[in-house]
């Protein structure tokens, strides 16, 4: 019997896949628990259409993220912060500060996508990574200057 999985099922497949299972497994487990539905011609067409729509959406999203990546790569930002004599900042420069700085430059980047191992606590040039998506990552430079 063929069924369309409604959710990921361990050792069987991912949501949206059409799989062949024994009729008893489908009738007694998958269908009653809402993990699958019988694969009729109408439902198969519906699933294929959804897959095409999702693929188009992901392609458009990837194109948009590539444009943001192109703007971010090689970008150089400057920020001024209070620092001691040895170049140690009194506070720190965090991902939220960098997100605000990018917003001022016209790039809306969520602070959670900015990858900082730990906040920047010293004066100088630092390289910062931005993980826009699992497969799209950009880098830019931040120069931290000491305030008068």
Can you describe this structure?
With 148 residues, the protein is an alpha+beta fold. It has two domains: 2-63, Ribosomal Protein L9, domain 1, CATH 3.40.5; 69-146, Ribosomal protein L9, C-terminal domain (Ribosomal Protein L9, domain 2, Roll), CATH 3.10.430. Helix content is 34%, strand content 32%. The protein has three helices and nine strands, in the order E-E-H-E-H-E-E-H-E-E-E-E. It has helices at 23-30, 41-72, 95-104, and strands at residues 2-5, 18-20, 36-38, 76-81, 88-93, 114-115, 120-122, 124-133, 136-146. The strands form three sheets. Strands 4-9-8-6 form a four-stranded mixed beta sheet. It has a three-stranded antiparallel beta sheet with strand order 2-1-3, sandwiched between helices. The longest helix is centred in the middle third of the chain and has 32 residues, at 41-72. It starts with a strand and ends with a strand.
Beta-strand proportion: 25-35%
What would CATH call the class of the largest domain? Alpha Beta
Helix count, per DSSP?
3
What is the CATH architecture assignment of the largest domain? Roll
- What structural class is derived from the secondary structure elements? alpha+beta
Q: Looking at CATH, which topology of the largest domain would you report? A: Ribosomal Protein L9, domain 2
Describe the secondary structure blueprint for this structure.
Layout (H helix, E strand, L loop, with lengths): L1 E4 L12 E3 L2 H8 L5 E3 L2 H32 L3 E6 L6 E6 L1 H10 L9 E2 L4 E3 L1 E10 L2 E11 L2
Parallel strand pairs: 4-9
Antiparallel strand pairs: 1-2, 1-3, 5-7, 6-8, 8-9
